Amino acid sequence: MSKRWLIYGAYGFTGKLIVTEALRKGMRPVIAGRDPEQIEKLASATGLEGRAFALDEGIDREISDVELVLHCAGPFEQTSAPMVSACIRGGVSYLDITGEIEVFEAIMRLGAEAKDAGIVMIPGVGFDVVPTDCLAAKLAEDVADASHLDLAFSSKRGGISRGTLKTMIEGIGKGGAIRKEGRIVRVPVAWDSREIPYESGPRSSMTIPWGDVSTAFHTTGIPNVRVYTATHPKTIRRMRMLRWLLPVVGLPPVKWLLLRIADRRSGPDETERGKAHIELWGEALNASGVRRSRTMRIPEGYTFTAASAVLAAERVMEGGVEPGAWTPARAFGARFVDDVVAEMAKA
């Protein structure tokens, strides 16, 4: 592929995995990020062109010669807006790997601007939220008039990176979220819990403010959405008992300390990622009581994100997506998750 594209945040944990996947497929993206030393080091190791720039007024110049930006530098609630604005001004397509509800909502509101600029904007082209978004789309096909949608996932082994942990810390003071009658509603942490029948067996799970609270509605039109993750019952009880502490955690001094602690963390290594996988479950329900459910299993989340993000970039640059702002399943179809898993099997 001869078209030029840029990965911003390329030296982060997930960014490096994405760069490696792009190289495996014979692609030569421009790698970029804020830190000149980190970019120089990665450029030397990969032979790729590197650019160091901050997310300020200089963005326009740095992305003026590329067709697409894959934005991988979180927390996205802080970093996406300046890159999105620059992409619209410059006529450059924008993808990212966010899982943050506010970012999805902000980008979906820019659909008309993206269309006028002739660009494609697709947030969440990684584990957050490709598998669950595609699962939601499949369930909407099963129950065309569904009014309620529940999604859930269970991570088997694996771990989280520094960037993911920082994003979690940034959002911890906001509590939970669900979609109710088409509107996003803030609810307490662990607001609802239930036993979910995952592929490997039932597990206790609790509601979380996952990106699908935003995207599933834009993908399917289903007005009531909840997302659950497998959690031990004791942990759910503890989280409910400690709800009153969340406003304290959101205070700047406390958040600063937690972010400094997160800086010491590294993500799961190759061996850990190779042993891990994720099980997903979803159920759609209509007003007449018709209920359909599906299960799904995908490889470990960071590895999936690398394959998914690169495949998404390829398809956008091939011209297969109309200009506008889209969720992954709206852009690529409900079977996109299957295509990603098939690509991973080739590696």
Kindly list the characteristics that best describe this protein.
15 strands; globular; 16 helices; single chain; 347 residues
Structure, explained:
- By secondary structure, the chain is α/β, with parallel strands linked by helices.
- It has 16 helices and 15 strands.
- About 2% of the residues have low confidence.
- Strand 4, helix 4 and strand 5 form a beta-alpha-beta unit.
Secondary structure: elements and pairs:
Layout: E1 5-8, H1 13-24, E2 30-33, H2 36-46, E3 50-52, H3 59-62, E4 68-71, H4 76-90, E5 93-96, H5 101-108, H6 111-117, E6 120-122, H7 130-142, E7 146-156, H8 162-171, E8 176-180, E9 183-187, E10 193-198, E11 201-207, H9 212-220, E12 224-230, H10 233-241, H11 246-249, H12 252-262, H13 270-275, E13 277-286, E14 291-299, H14 301-317, E15 324-325, H15 328-332, H16 336-346
Parallel strand pairs: 1-2, 1-4, 2-3, 4-5, 5-6, 6-15, 7-12
Antiparallel strand pairs: 7-13, 8-9, 10-11, 11-12, 13-14
Brief rundown of the structure:
The chain has 347 residues and is an alpha/beta fold.
Q: What average pLDDT do the residues reach?
A: 90
How many H/I helical runs? 16
Approximate shape: globular
Strand count, sense and closure of the main sheet? 7 strands, parallel
- SSE-based structural type: alpha/beta
Strand content: 15-25%
| Residue windows where pLDDT falls under 50 for at least 5 positions | 160-166
* Number of strand segments: 15
Rg (CA only) = 19 Å
* Terminus-to-terminus distance: 18 Å
Instruction: Strand order, main sheet: write it out.
Output: 3-2-1-4-5-6-15
Helix content: 40-55%
